[in-house]
Structure formats: C-alpha cells, structure tokens
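@channel sequence for tomorrow's demo:
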Amino acid sequence: MDNKIQKEIYAEVLETLINHLKKRTDVQNIDLMNLSGFCRNCLSKWYLSAAEKRNIKINYDEAREIIYGMPYSKWKEKYQLEATNEQLEKMKNNSD
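structure tokens (generated this afternoon):
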C-alpha cells in the first residue's frame, strides 16, 4: 500500500472516530481518558497541531468545535456530567 492511500485510510478512520464520538455524547471525556489515555480535547489539540504544521491558522476553540460538532461550552452545558469520586480517583491513579 502506498503512503498516499494509507493516509487517506487514516483520514477516513479518524473521521469515523470523530463522528462516532459526536454521536456518543453519553461517553464522558474523563471515561475516555481513564480507559484510553486520550479524549475529545486531546483530539482537538492534535487537530490544532496538525493544522499549525500546515500554516493553517485556527485556534483551540475552533479545533474543539470541529471535534465536538458544536462550541465546547454548548457541549459541556448539554452533555458533560459532574465527575464522580470514582472517576476522579481513577484519573489520579492513572497519572501517577
């Protein structure tokens, strides 16, 4: 497989992941972090970094809106739940 095709496949896989996370608003970022070590905010930062490497000027809020499918403040208001003590403890243990 040549590099161009592989990058096209990677792009499609990532687009599928982003769309999946947009639909799965029940999945909290803290749960993603605790299970996988990354979340929607990480994807936003990676998106921003990739854009900056190509001299494309966007900011973090714009990158988050692309990943979340809406402004982060709106997503947070509609879908983000208060983290439980168990979630916070797991997060703390993962970062040690």
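heads up for whoever presents: The mean pLDDT is 96.
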